[in-house]
Design goal:
- The protein is an alpha+beta fold.
- It folds into two domains: 114 residues, 2-Layer Sandwich (Uridine Diphospho-n-acetylenolpyruvylglucosamine Reductase, domain 3), CATH 3.30.465.10; 244 residues, Alpha-Beta Plaits (2-Layer Sandwich), CATH 3.30.70.2520.
- It has 17 helices and 22 strands.
- The strands form six sheets. It has a seven-stranded antiparallel β-sheet with strand order 19-14-16-15-21-22-20.
- A hairpin with a 5-residue loop joins strand 10 and strand 11.
- The longest helix is centred in the middle third of the chain and has 18 residues.
- It is globular, with a radius of gyration of 23 Å.
- The two termini are 22 Å apart.
Length: 499
């Protein structure tokens, strides 16, 4: 039922995600029905129907807030739509898509400081700065995220233990409050809002301009080493041996084997080239030498891959794929590793290079990502991998990263590791996956772990309060009351986790 239909039949309007009574005979106008769209989460396991607005200026955005107050509706925000769960969904209410607010506002190629609108994507960003010898200090596995969305979720990359999340490189931002007022935030100005809006999943206001510091690079290439690891213990050992001498580290885990080979996989580590190490940096920094090929071996379009992969998206088929991948890495790399050079974009953006998501089928995936302190990570992550096997829902893609703490209020960061696990939904296994997630929550909490709103689909309010702490949640609610006293900004995630 749409909001307008609800008003007609029940005499209520949607406010703060709840149905609030209005005076008899009162009827607030709904947005135009042509704005109603079905919006999908990136994991394709959840969706919603919303009134979608696509502002291109701050004036347009201010008008959306005004309409929301007039119509008694809530507003949610959406960037590139890359959150796995319901963080960018706002069912039967208004949703702002920021992708038209995508201008580069200022760039200083001497200092590497750039000012952008929130709809600028990582892809736009690196293409704009690379030929001047700069690279974003933190990037995700896809270049399709927007910087507004990245700031709201405080995203991290394969160098999280060394460079932290993207918030550590944000110099400042402008934030529009639902009242239409715009405030400037930095580490010196509105410092409390600065540290809460970064990682605050859009609940305090809308970023309208973000200033970031880029990372100087001296080549368009990275020195990369790939190594096979026979089990999870060996993968942790590899990470610990190479933390001090690496710029990037990431591990892929085969979650199917049992005792003896549990957690076997492959680690990739990479380093920037030093000044003078690349004999022709002008050439390697050119954009045409960074673009990800659209074909495999120059012949087969990657868009065809999902059609060939889909028959393997079951436990047996994916077990075979993981076995083949691991054996190939073991034969070609061994545990000592093999080195080569690779363009920045090729190393980072695997989710754009291989469109595996399209092969999942109509039910999509739920990703579960746990962040666990270093002293408990080996034991706890071994348990998490075993739990998937015993529940009969092994995860198809598992990724290990190293992290560090950060100063942001709603942080997922800690001195430890994260394990991200993709669970394919099919054959009616959704409830089993959700039950597994509930049980894994207890393992993570027992280890002093944390979670990440950009990936979440299954957390419950009591789990969020348990890992963030009652004081942190209370402080965030106070800031939200200060920035959004009428409760105009909401999403499905907010209503689910902060009722």
């Amino acid at each position: 039922m749409t909001t307008k239909e609800a008003e007609k039949t029940t005499g209520v309007v949607a406010t703060n995600g709840q149905k609030q009574p209005v005076a008899a005979g009162t009827q607030r106008p709904s947005p135009p029905v042509e704005r109603l769209e079905r919006v999908m989460a990136w994991g394709e396991a959840s969706d919603s129907v919303s009134y979608v607005y696509r502002p291109s200026t701050t004036g347009d955005l201010r008008a959306v807030f005004g309409q929301a107050r007039e119509k008694g509706m809530t507003v949610g925000f959406r960037g590139g739509g890359n959150s796995y769960g319901d963080a960018a969904l706002n069912n039967e209410n208004m949703l702002v898509d920021f992708r038209r607010m995508n201008r580069i506002l200022a760039w200083n190629p001497e200092s590497g400081v750039i000012r952008v609108e929130p709809g600028v994507t990582l892809g736009q960003l690196w293409r704009y700065v690379l030929e001047d010898g700069w690279w974003p200090p933190v990037v995700t596995g896809t270049m399709e995220i927007t910087l507004g969305g990245g700031a709201a979720m405080n995203v991290h990359g394969k160098n999280a233990w060394k460079m932290g999340p993207i918030g550590d490189h944000i110099v400042g931002f402008e934030l529009m409050l639902p009242s239409g007022e715009t405030i400037t935030c930095s580490r010196e100005q509105n410092e409390d809002i600065f540290h809460a809006a970064i990682g605050g999943f859009g609940m305090l206001g809308a970023f309208t301009a973000i200033t970031l510091q880029m990372k100087r690079v001296y080549s368009g290439l990275l020195n990369v080493e790939a190594a096979a690891t026979p089990d999870l213990e060996a993968m942790f050992d590899y990470f610990e041996r190479h933390l001090q001498e690496s710029d990037y580290l990431v591990g892929w885990i085969d979650a199917f084997p049992g005792t003896g080979a549990l957690g076997r996989g492959q680690v990739h580590r990479a380093n920037y080239l030093a000044p003078g190490e690349d004999p022709n940096p002008y050439e390697t920094l050119k954009l045409e030498n960074q673009e990800i090929p659209a074909t495999i071996m120059g012949v087969f379009p990657k868009l065809w891959m999902p059609f060939f992969m889909r028959p393997f998206y079951n436990n047996l088929g994916w077990r075979l794929i993981c076995w083949a991948k691991y054996m190939s890495s073991r034969l070609t790399e061994g545990i000592e590793g093999v080195g080569y050079q690779q363009p920045h974009a090729h190393f980072h953006f695997l989710l754009d290079a291989i469109p595996f998501k399209e092969a999942y089928g109509p039910d999509g995936i739920i990703q579960y990502q746990a962040f666990i302190p270093a002293g408990r990570a080996r034991e706890s992550m071994t348990t998490l991998l075993q739990m998937g096997r015993t529940h009969g829902v092994p995860n198809y893609l598992s990724v290990l990263k190293r992290h560090r703490p950060d100063p942001f209020l709603m942080t997922h960061g800690l001195d430890g590791y994260s394990l991200a696990m993709d669970f394919h939904l099919s054959g009616g296994n959704r409830e089993r996956v959700r039950q597994l997630a509930r049980e894994m929550d207890e393992v993570v909490l027992d280890a002093g772990g944390r979670f990440y709103f950009a990936k979440d689909s299954t957390l419950r309010p009591e789990i969020v309060t348990a890992y963030l702490g009652e004081e942190t949640v209370a402080n965030f609610r106070l800031l939200k009351q200060r920035c959004d006293p009428e409760g105009v900004i909401e999403t499905n995630l907010w209503r689910r986790l902060f009722p």
